[in-house]
Specification:
CATH class: Alpha Beta
Number of domains: 1
CATH architecture: 3-Layer(aba) Sandwich
Distance between the termini: 34 Å
Order of helices and strands: EHEHHEHHEHEHHH
Radius of gyration: 17 Å
Strand order of the largest sheet: 2-1-3-4-5
Shape: globular
Bound molecules: flavin mononucleotide
CATH topology: Rossmann fold
Structural class: alpha/beta
Oligomer: single chain
């Protein structure tokens, strides 16, 4: 079982978010998963230009590393999103990646995968950001199993036991949920609700967004 983790911090693998992520991955690896961390800061991910080519052709025309990261996620079983709190939201690096996934979410192109979210902050307000990243996972078809966060202002070099336990358990839960294909009613309802919305959109836009219409016919039984 393979996990791809995207870290949105400009501090890359040396920051607080990466440190908390390492504990989640320790938990996941103790249940047999393998993982690859991708620091978005070390990658060239340009902002979305809103050209609609992903809807029409299935691929972004911008010459950067987005498509290769998308391919890695599609080939993996799980996706973890990890971001620092930047002014009550995700970092710009993470948001650029999310925006570039507009075509993915129209197709629920990561369907069947499991996921989780990780946030660190200076002083708080992590939960809405974790919820936002988990909502993003849902609209791409990923089943989020939970999230973990830490306000770093009062934390020294070592995470308190409670946060460490939460992080380890999140990693374990991710792998076990994926292995056993565990579903929860609320998540299935949210995914299906968004899927219904996209089905309607595809029928409306079928002349224009030909790639996505064909994708829906092939993968989601669109008439
Ligand atoms: C531009 C910027 C904006 C930030 N905004 C917030 C914020 O709104 N609330 C907060 O509690 N911490 C905020 N922080 C602090 C970071 O979220 C915190 O230091 C985080 O743990 C950094 O993670 P990293 O080391 O992985 O980059 C901000 C930091 C920066 C640089």
């Amino acid at each position: 079982m393979k996990i791809i983790t995207l870290i949105g911090s400009p501090h890359g693998l040396k920051g607080n978010t990466a440190k908390l992520t390492q504990i989640v991955l320790e938990g996941a690896e103790s249940e047999g998963a393998t993982s690859e961390i991708i620091s978005l800061t070390g990658k060239n991910i340009l902002p979305c230009k809103g050209c609609d080519m992903c809807h029409k052709k299935g691929i972004c025309p911008q010459d950067d590393e987005f498509e290769s990261i998308k391919k890695k996620i599609i080939e993996a079983d799980c996706l973890i999103l990890a971001s620092p709190n930047y002014i009550f939201s995700v970092s710009a690096q993470m948001k650029a990646f999310m925006d570039r996934c507009c075509g993915v979410l129209h197709c629920l192109g990561f369907e069947g995968k499991y996921g989780a979210s990780i946030v660190t902050s200076g002083g708080g307000d992590e939960e809405p950001i974790a919820d936002y990243m988990n909502h993003f996972l849902i609209i791409t078809g990923v089943r989020p199993v939970g999230s973990v966060w830490a306000a770093m202002g009062n934390i020294g070099e070592i995470f308190p036991d409670e946060i460490r336990t939460n992080a380890l358990n999140l990693g374990k839960k991710l792998v076990l949920s994926c292995k056993n294909k565990i579903t929860c009613e609320e998540t299935e309802t949210r995914i299906n609700k968004f899927k219904d919305r996209m089905r309607y959109l595809m029928q409306w836009k079928k002349q224009e967004w030909t790639f996505e219409y064909e994708y829906w016919k092939k993968h989601h039984n669109l008439e």
